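Box S1 | Example of a co-folding query
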Amino acid sequence: MSKNVLDDGVVGRGNKDGAALFREWFQELHQVAENEGPSAYVFVMGSMAEILRVFDLPIVFPEITSLQMAVRRVAHEYLSDAEDYGYSPDICGYVKADVAMQLRNGEHPMGRIPKPTIGVYTNACNTYIKWAEIWERMYNIPIFTFDVPGTRAAGTQTWPGDLDFENDHRYVLAQTKELIALCEEITGLKFDIDKLREIMGHANRMSRGWKRVLELNQSRPSLFNALTDGTIYLGVANSFRGTEAGAKYFEDLVEEMEYKAANGIGTLTDEQYRLIFVGVPCYPIFRRFNEMFTNLNGTFINSTYLWFASGGTNLGFEYDLDRPLESLAEGILINVRDAMDSMFFQDRILIDMIDTYHADGVVYHPIKSCRTTSTGMADNRRALMAARDVPSLFIESDMMDRRVVSEAQLKNRIDAFFEGLATRKQQAVIAA
Ligand code: SF4
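Box S1 (continued) | Returned holo structure for iron/sulfur cluster
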């Protein structure tokens, strides 16, 4: 087969298919809302999709429905509604957008979103807990807190066989069984372990693929932009976790990335600066924000977002299907912990990324309305600068609220950062 024929079918397939799957997911949710069917509201860090799918519960990710409002440039309308209703301007923008959407009976730019039948969340972000309590009050529904013991300090993740891990595992396994019992109660369906095994098999294929896709971006030139393309992949990783469609999508994506690597097809025609992104993207000006970097031949090769917002799936953890429940609890513990560490102990991850992906710079993006990912970022940056001689940029805006996004100010800071990168490059050439 000639290169062009392959290019036609393979290159760009991940973005095209990802967008189609995403639309499909919203259409399904719209239908559920129209039919007043049940749904489970969950979060990206520990969605418990494997269990909820056993009970055929359509899954809503309010973080994703909210961010889509910003991408579609209507978030400010929802934020204003929520603030008029009494929510403070400085709390998480995702929460406010969701509350306003509930007040509008599920009205969303991509279709209607069904009301929740159950809310399931972990302790990965403290906002999750208060957010779910809003649904509990609004709809009088059960909410389930999944308490995942975090690591006690940087670099202290434990593994099966360790005494600490086995203690925490028992605790998580007990909660897994409690969630199953609650799902049986609200759906009236009996738990089916074979169905769980099948769903976990799909999740294994997806985890394998996601890890490989991330690794493949070590290529030079890099194969996908972690900020823009990566967010599409992330959307599929969350909303299609545990499905055949999601597993196939990631296998196809690996094929696409391997093809691009083999043929030297990068995201930029002239990749000069390989950057790492830290934090949550600037969704109100999503494309333009990225272009401020790509127009100067910089591209994002990895990000902490692709780690924590995939709920730790980046690790490529695979379940042991011979002991599904025990292995599911192990996976929840390992993955959710890793997601938390990717937010709180970023310097460790970034050092590793700088070394393995050969990064030229790190862009920190603390945002007004997500304290969970932004608090401690400045200290983390200091720790990183002490460990590696790599330039970094610290720019503040928001993931939802366009009122605090100053495009001109961002551009000035980014342009100055690139001048510094260019000077370093020249000096390196002279020194060589
Ligand atoms: S505070 Fe941050 S991590 Fe928590 S729900 Fe909001 S955006 Fe997500």
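Residues 152 and 341 are 10 Å apart (CA to CA). The pocket of iron/sulfur cluster is lined by residues 63, 92, 94, 125, 127-128, 370, 372-373 (CB under 6 Å).
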